[in-house]
Amino acid sequence: MKKTLIITIATIVLIPAAATAALFTLSAAAGSHQTCGKVNATELRAAADPNYGKKLEKLARCGR
């Protein structure tokens, strides 16, 4: 009876701890890929240009 109680309590404690650790890890990984709002207004205007798709295709073919 005592062994079952210990296993149950350990499970109740470890599952939320593992979920919290996974949440912080995923949050840190997602945060490292943000641009932090460093976008130029000219880049935003360029995306609205009707010929922007052609420019992207041209850049995609470029061997950078």
Question: What this model shows, in words?
Answer:
The longest helix has 30 residues, at 2-31. It is rod-shaped, with a radius of gyration of 25 Å. The protein has one domain. It has 3 helices and no strands. The chain has helices at residues 2-31, 41-48, 52-61. The chain is mostly helical and 64 residues long. The chain starts with a helix and ends with a helix.
Beta strand %: under 5%
The helix tally amounts to 3
Mean pLDDT: 79
The global form is rod-shaped
What is the CA-atom radius of gyration, in angstroms? 25 Å
Oligomer: single chain
Low-pLDDT segments? none
Q: What's this entry about, in short?
A:
With 64 residues, the chain is mostly helical. 75% of the residues lie in helices and 0% in strands.
